[in-house]
Amino acid sequence: MQKQGLKIPLSRRENAVLLSLTGLLVLAALGSLLVGRFNLSPAMLLKVFRARLTGKDPVPQADNIIFIIRLPRIFLAMLVGAALSLSGAAYQSLFKDPLVSPGVLGVTSGAGFGAALGILFSLPSVVIQSFAFIFGLITVAAVLSLTQFAGKGRNSTVILILTGTIMNALFSSVISFTKYVADADNKLPEITFWLMGSFARSGNNKNVLIMLGVLLVAGTVLFLLRWKINILSFSDEEARSMGVNTRQVRTVVILASTLLTAASVSLCGIISWVGLIIPHIARLLVGPNNQALFPVSLLGGALFMLLVDNCARALIPGELPVGVLVSFIGAPLFLYMLFCGKKEWL
């Protein structure tokens, strides 16, 4: 049996990559505390943390900036980046298609419509987030149901992706209609800003805890199944002969990945490219073995999203939507990988 079909210890190179990414992520998180409109020096940062630990000489303004504004946003950016990248890696391995992204089954567009609908009717932010999450899950459930109905006797994977593409097109048109009928002075700008993706309004402790809970549950499921996903790289007959229930594993992986994506979109809006590009870079670093690919994708996604969010906060006096900036970076990077990179990247 090939290496990627076995549960084996990580190689020295794979461990080195994981340790390096962990170190870079910690350094980036600490550096991110200094990025923003209000200038904070490293000395002030140390003073604030010392005051928190000892209870002496508090610095109220700097303390509020770090612990109420910046730290929750940093954690949320890392969690969302990790979730989207892990979801993308799982989908790409499951469908054996390097061009698959977390939104392939319509969860992103479905969640986008749910949020746009909530904004259109002036619902509270928590209801808007709930609408986005629920509509994302409903969309994927509809895709799975339609695939089961239409895919009998045919290639179910192809039917699944085609159905997801149809759902994406359908909800994209419905979102466009929602924007068309929305009030141009108030609702339309709010819908547009939400769809661009941003952490500006979602970086709080409540959302961090929600995203952390989803990532712990769904991420643990994917990590426990990663060696079985390796085996799915063979044909279904070979996978079954190795004791893998292919249908059950596919369903669970899709549900876990959908939870990760729906939670991310419901909290922060639509952020593309992360779940497409980061798994490719991770594959370049450690190869196709999901035992190493999943943790490297998770850490790489967290690091990438954190750095992009720092740029979104620092490039202009206001703030760029992080989803727009990710697209600016992701599209040229993917073109470079496509035309100038190694063939095994794709």
Protein architecture, described:
With 346 residues, the chain is mainly α. The chain has a single domain, classed as ABC transporter involved in vitamin B12 uptake, BtuC (Orthogonal Bundle), CATH 1.10.3470. The protein is built from 13 helices and no strands. Helix 3 packs parallel to helix 8, helix 4 (107-120) packs antiparallel against helix 5 and helix 5 (125-150) runs antiparallel to helix 6 (156-181). The two termini are 23 Å apart. The relative contact order is 0.17.
Q: What is the overall shape?
A: globular
CATH topology value: ABC transporter involved in vitamin B12 uptake, BtuC
Oligomer: single chain
Write down the secondary-structure element order. Answer: HHHHHHHHHHHHH
CATH class: Mainly Alpha
**Average pLDDT reading:** 89
Q: Which structural class do you get from the secondary structure elements?
A: mainly alpha
Q: Got a strand count?
A: 0
- Low confidence ranges: 1-5
| Percent of residues in beta strands | under 5%
Q: How many separate helices?
A: 13
What share of the residues lie within helices? over 70%
Tally of structural domains: 1
* CATH architecture heading: Orthogonal Bundle
Largest sheet, strands/sense/barrel: none
GO molecular function, one term: transmembrane transporter activity
Organism: Treponema primitia (strain ATCC BAA-887 / DSM 12427 / ZAS-2)
Transmembrane segments: 65-87, 99-121, 127-146, 158-178, 208-225, 252-278, 290-308, 320-339
Subcellular location: Cell membrane
